[in-house]
Sequence to fold (187 residues):
Amino acid sequence: MLRISGTEPAGRPAVVRTDDHIPLDVSWGYDAALPMLYWRSGDPVWSLVEVGVQRESAAIVSITVPLAGALVRVAAEPEPDVPEEHGHPVCDVRRWWDDDRSAWKEWHCVDEPGLFHLSVHGDRVRVSFASDEPVARAVVSGSTRFELSARGDLLAVSIGGVGTEDRERMVETVARERAMVGTRIFP
Fold:
């Protein structure tokens, strides 16, 4: 799991993009000129989620779901009643260092297979990572809520204020993906 080690002051608001090929792409002040690290999870055939981390600040700057496997529409679900901290999450980036901890690995991706769940409820879109750990705390950055385990593992990201057109495009894109690769997780 991606581990959150702290926070920085809340940055820019979430910018949500959807299109006919990428169900969900969210960014928070991404600067293309700065080096990036990536944490990826999913099943390489059915689903993929990629979290972009700015190398120098270790802040999460993007979440992209190029292949969702499925999308679930749910009634408004209450957010876990846990302590909240306001700011923007910063990751533990030691996994991207070389073994001797003197330099960054040449390949800037950490891949961890695992299930995730993409859901829509009201004006919120949620990416939840499969885990037996309960939500213990949350980091809130504008309309985005990052839910963490007691150890700091990222369990879910809930983005609010997603427009109707973006939500509908996301549903259509996932339906098209499912038709191409078949039905699999979270029907």
Remarks:
- Residues 4-72+84-181 form one domain.
- The radius of gyration is 16 Å.
- The first strand starts at residue 4 and ends at 8.
